[in-house]
Amino acid sequence: MEMETVLIVIIVLAVAAYGTGYFMKKKHYQTINNLEQQKFDLMDTSVAETIQNVEILSLTGQTEKNFEQWKDKWKQIELTAFPDIENLLFDAEQTTDRFQLIKAGKSESRSRELIESTKNKIKEIQLALNELLKSEEKNSQAIKKVEEMYQGIRKKLLTQSFSFGPALDKLEKKLTFLELSFSNFFELTSSGDHIEAEEVLKKVNYETKELNDAVTTIPSLVKEISNEFPAQIQELKEGYHELKDVQHFVFLGDTLTSDIAEIEQDIEQGEKLIKQCETEKVEKLNSIIEEKINHLYDVMEAEISAREAVEKEQPILAKLIEFVNKRNQQLLIEIDRVSQSYTLDDTFSQQTKDMQEQIEEIQLNFETFNNGIEKNQAVYTVVAESHAEDSERLAQIEEKQEKLIKQLADLREEETEVKEKIDDFEFNMRGIKRYIEKQHLPGLPEEYLDLFFVTTERIEKLAKELNKLKIDMTEIKKMCEMCEDDVELLIDKTEEIVDSAILTEYMMQYANRYRNDHPQIGEAILESNELFNKEFQYKEALEIISTALEVVEPGSFKKVENQYYEEKSRTAK
After folding, report:
1. What is the pLDDT of residues 370-418, one digit of tens each?
2. Among positive and negative, which fits the CA dihedral 116, 117, 121, 124?
3. Are residues 119 and 255 in the same domain?
4. Which residues point to the Cytoplasmic side (predicted)?
5. In angstroms, rounded to a whole number, what is the distance separating the alpha carbons of residues 356 and 439?
């Protein structure tokens, strides 16, 4: 029984091994067939046909050398790569037949790598050969565009030769050299050296574009150098002569003659550069020349404009100087007059003197420039600038004068206001006195009487100060403010005394109802009465009686107080 089992196991294992081997061999055969097909695809490329097409072109020179190199690479693939691939695939098939599957796998892997590298080489060869086939057509199309540009240049040089000035000879020489380059290109193309022809074409294309740029740019540069700038220089010379010698203008740091000569040298340099077709240098130089010419125009125009401004502003400034000077004299007189009645701050006189010095300085400047204009020695831009500055200074002086005039005028108004306030103070003091007397109080607190008499004395002192021949309004205004504060305080203290006295009487009357039942109320009434009638401390008297009454009847003080102020309000109406 055991032998039978062993035999069955051996048979099963043998069948399994055979099955596994069969499937693995089948997989290798599939891989080999796939690689075989890739080899056939590589061998079936059109490289050989392309080589035959290129050979028909009869190439020469560098093109022929390139072609031979690619052709040799193809031969190397045919003679080496394809046989190597075939041998590797054959080895893989043989080793698979012999069940040497690991060795077969290595051959398959090497053949796969060789197929891939060969495929890349074939692509590279095919692309290079295609470029060789297209090179003639590509060069032909490119040269047509260059020829069109060349013909355009040639036509311009023939029909518009006058517009190129001294650059014409150089341009024609460049055109001749360009023709030689064209001939060289066509010779290389005819001989089949398309690669070398392409290099020549690049050079021809660059030179043609460069020449076309020059032909396009130079006419405008020639126009500036040969026509516009010389005409402007002539205009500057004539204008300078007219302004300086005929109209007697003076220019500050006059360098116009040397500046014009310098520009003429720049123009000569520009003509030399034009002759050599140095367009970039000419463009830069022309920009510099243009800036210099514009600067000289600006200098002349500035003097002309300044003269017009001076002629217009001169009479206005003269009148303004006269007006401000006259008003300053009047201000000095007014300060002297006002100082007879008022003590003035030193700044009044000092400011007026400072302004007078400035006016005299401006007057001197004005006369100096006028004298220079009469003698044809004045630079109008300098005069105009000075006049503008002096006009601004005069405007500031005028503003200061107005401020001082107002301050002087305000002194009289301030004096009148203080007089009116003194009348108000005296009226209020009489009213306070009558109001106190009307209350028939037993007397007044000493501190209140002191305040009353001090306030009265201050008002009298203020009135005396105001009646002096020469008054100090600064000091008087301070005294007036003190009197205002004293009168206001006295009014408040008067109201406080009267209110406290009347409320004390009301509270005593109200407290009498509790006098028999509450002994402390009787004591409070006696103490309050003592303060009221003998010491005249009405506020303290009110405090004593109201405090005692609040203990007996809380809220009583507030009730009496409200009734008092309501009655007072009705009486006031």
Report:
1. 998 888 888 889 999 999 999 999 999 999 999 988 888 888 888 889 8
2. positive
3. no
4. 25-573
5. 65
Contacts of 46 (CB under 8 A, 6+ apart): 126
Token code pair at residue 70: 């690619």
CB atoms within 10 A of CB 350: 10
221 with 159: CB under 8 angstroms? no
Residue 35 has pLDDT above 80, yes or no: no
Q: Which domain holds residue 475?
A: 439-572
CB of 63 closer than 8 Å to CB of 13: no
pTM for the complete prediction?
0.55
Number of domains the chain contains: 4
**Euclidean distance between CA atoms 116 and 71, whole angstroms:** 20
- pLDDT digit string, tens, across residues 429-444: 999 999 999 989 999 9
Tell me which of 300, 319, 353 is where a domain ends. 300
DSSP letters of 199-244? HHHHHHHHHHHHHHHHHHHHHHHHIIIIIIHHHHHHHHHHHHHIII
What Å distances lie between residue 297 and 260, 263, 286, 291, CA to CA?
11, 13, 16, 10
Q: Is residue 101 part of a domain?
A: yes
> Which tokens go with 25?
């061999």
563 in any annotated domain: yes
| Residue listed under structure tokens 């796969």 | 112
Cα 456 to Cα 144, 461, 487, distances in angstroms: 120, 9, 9
What CA–CA distance (Å, rounded) separates 11 from 204? Answer: 86
Spatial distance between the Cα atoms of 81 and 118, rounded to a whole number of angstroms: 7
Within a 10 A sphere around the Cβ of 213, how many other Cβ atoms? 12
Question: Count of residues for the chain?
Answer: 573
